[in-house]
Design a protein that fits this description.
The chain has two domains: about 35-105 and about 245-404, no CATH class; about 115-130 and about 155-240, no CATH class. Helices cover about 35% and strands about 15% of the residues. It has helices spanning about 20-25, 55-60, 70-75, 85-90, 95-105, 115-120, 130-140, 160, 170-180, 210-215, 220-230, 250-265, 290-300, 325-340, 390-400, and strands at about 35-40, 45, 80-85, 105-110, 145-150, 190-195, 235-240, 275, 280, 305-315, 350-355. The chain is globular. It binds ligand G3I.
């Protein structure tokens, strides 16, 4: 069943009270909604919706740290909540590091643990940035995801001219032994193989015609997972992919190929612990979330695997209007609909957004082909100025609604 889009006014935040600042900035007074001043606390409830004072918010209005943080609400429902991290910003941007400490208990390197950044030369490794992330996590009692050990992108410039069918397995297993071995015991889960399925490549097994497939055949996947288990027996070995979230034919076909892969790996006793669902989703999509992804997660659970939402963000380029409050509301609705669809399944153990603040999202980066080039994407829970947006409160409410 697909999630019915319950429409709420732009200011709507279930179970929360609006502070005076939020009420005024939401433009509520222009929407004719019923505004009831709460004299006792000086807080306005600006909803035309019955609002129940949220216990942790009724006192410290607008509070978002401590018991009101994402990680506190997530932990209360057996979830870890995390974000992808640009390690250079940990040194250069105090607000960035502060929000990570306040809101998340899980981090993943956006780029620092990929082949390209780690491997400046065939016989050289560069671990400074990856080490910095692991150190930051240890200092702040956070868990770490490793991303990733085998992918068709972010390969170093020397790769194509150096790696061949004869030496490819040694390069792959040496890389995994060195990298996963270095962080043994410090990585909660590894994206061992990333994005191996590409339906339009036309193979009967749905596998992407990646350099690894060309060099080693389909067995590269098993080689990578076995090497990872040997290097770090305590890490949860994850297969991670995108394009599976919607109830439409394209995503359904990809889900089926991935489930076939997971079933084959389990049948062949390939070490595998979890499925990563990247969750790069869109506002304004003609598709919805529902039975497709719910059955996908249930099918994964039936294999004894955990499920991680690994790269959640909302691309809003399809929204035709520019009004920020309207866009933020539409984006928050996508967060709500998606998370309310997938979080009820107990196999879902973590939710990571692909970044913390719109200021640094890849969606505003130079590689993006933009439909709305004259505006910045507002894809993440915090805006360019580190202010929580409606998406932040939507995530927190969805965690609270999880019955687990
Ligand atoms: O650091 C270099 C810089 O020194 C150089 O001047 C600059 C220009 O060439 O490039 C910089 O590296 C870029 C890197 O991001 C850091 O900004 C790479 O070119 C660029 O390709 C890389 O893009 C990353 C992309 O993966 C490819 O690795 C994005 O930041 C990152 O958000 C994106 O993340 C992927 C996940 O790993 C897998 N799932 C999809 C997701 C989005 O594409």
């Amino acid at each position: 069943m697909s999630k019915t889009n319950v429409r709420h006014p732009p200011h709507y935040k279930e179970n929360t009270l609006l502070t005076r600042r939020e009420f005024i900035s939401s433009g509520l007074q222009t929407t004719g909604a019923i505004a009831v001043a709460s004299a006792a606390t000086g807080i306005l409830t600006g909803c035309s919706h019955q609002v129940h004072a949220h216990p942790t918010l009724a006192t410290a209005s607008g509070e978002i740290t401590g018991k009101a943080s994402l990680k506190a609400h997530a932990a209360a429902h057996e979830l870890l909540v995390g974000a992808a991290v640009n390690t250079r910003l940990l040194r250069s941007d105090a607000n960035y590091a502060r929000i990570l400490r306040e809101q998340y208990d899980l981090v993943v390197a956006e780029n620092a643990m990929k082949w390209g950044p780690l491997r400046p030369a065939p016989d050289k490794y560069f671990f400074d940035e990856a080490d910095a992330l692991v150190a930051f996590a240890e200092q702040n009692k956070m868990k770490v995801r490793g991303h990733n050990l085998a992918w068709h992108e972010a390969l170093p410039g020397w790769f194509a001219a150096t790696v061949n069918k004869e030496n490819a397995q040694r390069f792959l297993t040496d890389h995994i032994a060195t990298v996963a071995g270095r962080y043994k015991g410090k990585i909660r889960s590894w994206d061992v193989v990333n994005e191996a399925i590409q339906v339009k490549d036309g193979r009967p097994d749905g596998l992407r015609k990646s350099p690894w497939l060309e060099l080693l055949g389909p067995g590269y996947i098993d080689i990578a997972f076995r090497a990872a288990r040997q290097a770090d027996p305590g890490a949860l070995l994850t297969y991670n992919d995108y394009g599976v979230e919607y109830d439409n034919d394209e995503d359904a076909r990809k889900r089926e190929f991935i489930l076939q892969l997971l079933r084959r790996m389990k049948a062949d006793n390939v070490p595998l612990d979890a499925l990563g669902i990247q969750s790069h989703i869109r506002a304004g999509s003609s598709s919805s979330f529902g039975k497709g992804i719910q059955d996908y997660i249930a099918g994964t659970r039936a294999l004894g695997l955990q499920v991680f939402l690994t790269e959640l963000d909302v691309n809003e380029d399809d929204l035709p209007y520019n009004d920020v409050a309207q866009r933020d509301h539409a984006i928050a609705e996508v967060y709500r609909n998606y998370l309310d669809t997938v979080l009820p399944d107990p196999a879902v153990k973590s939710v990571l957004t692909w970044g913390v603040t719109d200021r640094y999202t890849w969606l505003n980066g130079p590689t993006q082909k933009r439909k709305q080039p004259n505006r910045r994407q507002r894809a993440l829970p915090f805006d360019d100025n580190y202010q929580p947006k409606e998406a932040f409160f939507a995530m927190r409410d969805c965690f609270d609604r999880r019955s687990v």
